[in-house]
Design a protein that fits this description.
heterotrimer; A alpha/beta; B alpha+beta; C alpha+beta; A: alpha/beta; Ubiquitin-like (UB roll); DNA polymerase, domain 1; 2 domains; C: alpha+beta; Uridine Diphospho-n-acetylenolpyruvylglucosamine Reductase, domain 2; Uridine Diphospho-n-acetylenolpyruvylglucosamine Reductase, domain 3; Enolase-like, domain 1; 3 domains; 4-stranded antiparallel β-sheet; 14 strands; binds flavin-adenine dinucleotide; binds FE2/S2 (inorganic) cluster
Chain lengths: 182, 755, 288
Amino acid sequence: MNFDATNRWVGCFTQPADAKQMKHHVIRITVNGDRHTLAVAPHWTLVEVLREHLRLTGTKHGCGTGDCGACTVLLDGRSVNSCLTLAVEVDGREITTIEGIASSGGELHPVQDAFIAHGATQCGFCTPGMVVSSVQLLATNSRPEEQEIRHALGGNLCRCTGYTKIVEAIAAAATQGEEAEG
Amino acid sequence: MSRQTLIGKSLPRPDAKAKVTGGAQYTDDIHLPGMLHGALLRSPVAHARIASIDIDRARALPGVKCVITGNDVPAVRYGNWRLVPELQDETALAVDKVRFIGDEVAAVAAVDADTAREALELIDVEYEELPAVFGIEEALAEGAPHLHDAHTDNISLTRNIDYGELDRAFEEAFHIQEDVFTTHPVNHAYMEPCSALARAESDGRITIWTSTQTPYYIQCLLARTMELRENDVRVIKPHVGGGFGGKMELRPWDFCAAWMAREIGRPVKFTLDRTEELATGRRRHAVKISSRIAFQEDGTITGKEVRAWLNGGAYNGMGPTATFLIGNFGAMLYRIPAYRYRGLYIYTNTPPAGAMRGFGAPQALYAGETQMSQAAAALGLDPIELRLKNSMTEGDEIPGVATVGSCGLKECLEEVRRISGWNEKRATLGRGHGIGVACYSFISGGVFNWFNTKYPFSSAEVRVFDDGTAQLSTLAADIGQGSDLILPQILAEELGLRMDDIRLVTGDTAACPQSDLGTWGSRVTLMAGNAVRRAAKEVKERLFEMVSLKFDLNVIHELECGDGHIYAKNKPKRRIPFGEVVAMAQRANRGEPIKATGYYTPRDCGLVSPAFSFGAQVAETRVDLDTGKVEVEQMYTVHDCGVELNPMAVEGQLEGSIQMSLGYALSETLVMQEGRTLNTTFLDYKIPVAADMPPSISKTVETFEPAGPFGAKEAGEGLACPTAPAVVDAVYDATGYCCNDLPITPEKILGHLGA
Amino acid sequence: MRLPRFEYHAPERIEQVFDLMESLGSAAELMAGGTDLLPGLKLGKRSCDHIVSLSRLSELKELSFNEAKGLRIGAGTVLADVAAHGPVRDRYRMLASAIADLATVQVRHRATVAGNLCNASPCADTAPPLMAMGAIIEISSSGGRRDIPLEELMVGPGSIALEKGEIVTAIIVPTPRLESRSTYIKFSPRSKVDIAAVNVAVSTTTTRGRVDEVEIFLGTVAPTPIRARRAEVLLKGSHLSESLLASAAAAARDECLPITDFRATEEYKRHLVEVLTKRALMTTTGIA
Ligand SMILES: Cc1cc2nc3c(=O)[nH]c(=O)nc-3n(C[C@H](O)[C@H](O)[C@H](O)COP(=O)(O)OP(=O)(O)OC[C@H]3O[C@@H](n4cnc5c(N)ncnc54)[C@H](O)[C@@H]3O)c2cc1C
Ligand code: FES
Ligand code: FES
């Protein structure tokens, strides 16, 4: 197989052990701008491939059943639960994880700056998912009302902050974005 | 130049950037070369003798590297209560018997997580089922089956408190408020599931990365179960995604990771599933509380009697401490001249209960505060008036237990009455709309040495460098509450440096001074904060000596640190950059680095805590009288946490507490059936989401706590207590229904309304 | 939580789906968004050796409206797109509002209406509104196409009226009568983002205080979403009054068959059916 320079071949995995061994599928995905070609087992979820194979551990695994939102990533620009997305399904698609939210030069997204300034992260485990969901929200609604923010975060659980400072941070990032535009 | 430049500032967390960019590393994020993945086989039955375990098929599965059962490892009993070895009743893997659904029976390590899980299905265990007990009454019934052979019944611990002339108080009472309450089990629901990764070093020592609030306990207990010396175990605490009391014990996966890593010479990692967490994890105790309070006609409390039965589950762990705390918090907040407490800690075949934010106080205060509001109704008094009449004040003594060094309870009540518009609203909002109040008090760290540590309760080492920076090392464990922010903030304040001048070394037993008991009981700010200050003071003394020589000042206390300099208080222009002074001090000491270690162990402050926080909270609710659904519309909180070191961090604690406590009051409960937890996903175990949260207004009443660093005391756990009783009281105001069996559900309300 | 092992197929032509489903039979599960299927597999509530994914079938991503034929929702269209579709927002407001409160943003970006219906959960949020709007299910197989009313699709929890080798290819919703008014209420006593304890969809057409047409569908209170026929009979042709709505609501209460679960007990669900049906009827008829 031939791959161009930006393509990384990450194909060397421990062989699944038992007789039920299933065929691996080769997928090509772009993650935070980097292209990867991977051999994945059909039952691997995107979160597992991101964390265990690409070692992009910023995306968290809090439940595995779509309830907590810690695993939220952008798939072709739309937020999804990477724990409920099969890796084979994302062949040919573009993924943005929390590691790809800041600019490649390292400049933080306004949502990230606002999370820091407003104290919107405590233990931080929900934070990657919260940030990705917030980025998604502001991309579709640049000036959300408080209730819209709260509704949009329905798929992201936090046990530390009571969401107050998260909601404040998103509102502040939205205002800031607007000022920057206007 | 003014002092106290950083105290009271809402500085952001130093680790915030790592957290918002995905760079913060939690245990499961760590990958070591050759690492294996572990999985645990758990008991499917509540109580049984293990007739046989056959692991041959699992071992034969390609990719499986190690399988262990309770027969393969030393049967060392462990538990946090080292002071009372009889309370240490747990083994890492079941020996002979299983005692709850989820009890760990065997562990597998394999090349990948899939194989590990598949191997579990190949372990054949034959159980001989035994009769089981699930509830308090069943467990205490005559002839009930026993869980532990060391006991002749299912009572693991009793705690009695007696003072004052209680019988007379009740004989002479004008009104006796007597009620029985029950509470339900709830889960911490920290977002990061438990995880542990262990590596055996070539010399046989163990390094373990684990999601814990208490690295030091893990070190001690893991060493004991592995039959190693304490210093042969190195515990590293990476970032921890919340704990709330649920991560303060050695757990089977810590042990299994370490044991198997040593056995096979490859690192082993375990990470729990959310379903394991919810189905088998520690939980807040279900408690039955029977309580009566004696009042005089004017509302003065003359005595109180509390009896509590705690459903402890199958093993003690840390749990029995709640028996003590319910006793203490039964008699806090108000002046209670006579008190009797009987607490029983009871074994049942359910997943063990443990510490959870407030650890006994939420249950005790739910009962006690609900009674205060009900008593006010019975006495024809306003609930806030009744509380004000009896409220504790500074200097009050709880016999044999503690002296209250600072107390803003009265001010909190008055202020919350004002900001909530209480007087205009109580009993006047109309049917379906109500307002309710409740108070809390909490400890700032525990005094009682139940872990039986040989070290100080908190320690901190401070080193200073000639480039004007400092290093703080402490084992105080940040699990999200923010000690990695507050402790450097305290040090920066003491040394007059900026936050980014402080390098923090933490969470590693091999790199931090011995010791710190970890994060629980809201102890860190006070205890570790004091240790930091002591270390800083010592360093400063040495630096001030240098400056005095240079300035020719002979009285040391005339110097001060600030703005990156050391300066003369009266002549602030006479100053030397901090780093230069460090260089001077080093030169004068043959280059020896300038460092000091500060320690803190509470002394002469009774049995409970060096300091107590207080607060009052008001909830406004609307009840849909047709559906019974409760909507909390507004929260008002006024609390006394001493001097607020970082208001943003304190607010964060309050806001998180309200979320957890609204869940406790209204939506969260572990649904149990014959020892089985039925709701094991977040779809079914419902913690409040952003849209469920009411607006909240809060204020602080500032007192100065003499025992705390810069006058501070706790703000993390007490706030988890008043919300449930405040909502209960508000629902009572709205509907006349007083909930004595948490959680409040629409069905209970409708039942009362006769709908 | 990890998935058990299975084989994965993602055909690009629909005939291949039919072939696979026919040859694999009960060993295979179809997957649209996977938001029901994958949690079910992880939790051990279901199992399969093969997953046949619909993700590569662009023909199923259709979403179109025309006045004569109504709304056509391809089985591969995700909920977020349905809810954002102009005609859906204008003409099928009940459906749009049901989707807005279904699950979470992330799930709505993956999940489909077809998956919601074919999962055959009694609490499926799109079912009562679509039933009230008279939705038709287009079923295809190598043998051809057939249409059935949505009401006939679900036969019990997790079970649908498809033959081996058949799949749902589209949902067709007739253009709503302009005069009709409808509303959907999803009720959870615990949280604003939750699976329903009871859901009610009501659609009514009235002229001069008389009920001409009425559809009442109840979710979560029987093995499948059900039609409150007795309540409808009471209403149809009658003159509107509060007491009429109350007796219709009481009839709905009597004809449902709820069971106790984590979210509510049987008795409470019955009570909710009465309260919510009445509220929904009050909203659509304007009687207060
Ligand atoms: C966190 C979370 C919250 C949720 N909340 C809600 C909620 O509030 N309300 C609600 O109703 N649901 C909820 N759900 C369930 C689920 O998201 C919805 O039912 C969704 O619409 C399912 O669509 P899907 O495309 O993901 O289905 P899949 O999971 O892909 O499929 C579901 C079932 O339908 C079958 N199927 C799919 N497509 C076809 C077809 N074309 N022909 C035949 N069979 C087919 C599959 O074989 C499978 O058995 C929730 C799920 C999660 C994870
Ligand atoms: S891990 Fe994916 S939603 Fe919780
Ligand atoms: S910050 Fe801890 S879960 Fe959100």
